[in-house]
Amino acid sequence: MKCVVCTLFEHHYHWGVAVLVNSLCQAGFQGTIYAGFRGPLPPWAEHQVRLLEPNQWEMQVSPDVRIHFLRLETSAHFTNFKPDFLLQIEPMASKESDAVIYCDPDIVINTNWRFVDDWLSCGVALCEDVNSPIGENHPKRIGWRRFFKPLGHELEFHCPEYANGGWIGLRWEYRKFLLVWQELMTQMAIALGGSDIVGIEGGRTLQTSYGFANCFDKTDQDALNATIEACPDLPVSFLKGDAMGFLDGQALLPHALGPSKPWRRRYLLEALVGCPPNMVDRIFWNKADSPIHPFSPAFVRAKRLELMVGAALGRLIRRA
User: Fold this and answer.
1) Which among 34, 182, 234, 309 would be 20 to 30 A from 91, CA to CA?
2) What phi, psi does 262 have (nearest 5°)?
3) Dihedral over alpha carbons 219, 221, 223, 227 (to 10 degrees)
């Protein structure tokens, strides 16, 4: 199955994009990575790209992998722009692919691409969030149903799994899922007061609740899970929380949650206060230096040494 991958980034998240691309190449992915962004091109790409048309550039990473950069003009927080971006690239991407994956720039691929390809044949590919599962009559799910029913969407309980918004893969034949997700996001944004409102760092936040029982405090993620209930005719294929490193097990798609990203962490200082590096950090730096070289070789070696020392300190020091 031919697949394209897309991501959204701004500010320092370009470091994550570079390592995401490295991990895709190392996994065996072949094809185009569509990268939507605000601001300047990443420093590791600005001298490697060729202009395609205004606000669009291409970087050839390897003979089989290229990045298509698209500078975006939107006031939406990028976490709320995911279905819009997937539908925006569809006219281009669907000509070269059977399927599309959205992947946050703080995720890396830690499995072979054959597994991902097989997974995409099973339905809409999602990963359980750290807060999963959420039962049928949880106030969050009740809140979604009460909100969307008057707007024309009858939600039906599908499964207790609650998906993380950092990863979604689907075949283009399931584009209905993207259209519904986009519509639910739009309706939610109107109710909250704008598409730049999010329950996380980096956007406008509300002092009041995010709907009934805070049912929209994770905006894109809550709308994504409401979309599962709004599309009961579409198959959904979940991986458990270990896939993103939230539980013990094999982290196929390790996801660096929270504001402290691997490229910004100071491992020795953090280990001294009881916050040692974790598996996600180790996997990130293992994939940080090829085929794109966003960091100097000396910097990567230093980070890997920090990881080793930080892990050793972590075995001796525990946060109170």
Assistant:
1) 234
2) -55, -35
3) 180
**Token pair 């609650």 in the structure block, residue:** 162
Which pTM does this prediction carry? 0.94
Between 3.90.550.10, 3.30.70.2740, 3.40.190.10, 3.40.50.1580, what CATH number should domain 3-244 receive?
A: 3.90.550.10
pLDDT digits (tens, 9 = 90+) for 184-223: 999 999 999 999 888 776 778 888 889 999 999 999 999 9
Amino acid at 149: K
Contact 242, 251 (CB under 8 A): yes
Tokens standing for residue 85: 């971006």
Residue partners of 79: CB distance under 8 A and separation at least 6: 165, 198, 200, 202, 203, 219, 220
User: In sequence order, what are the residues at sequence separation of 6 or more whose Cβ sits closer than 8 angstroms to the Cβ of residue 158?
Assistant: 228, 229, 232, 236
CA dihedral in degrees (74, 80, 84, 86; nearest 10)? 120
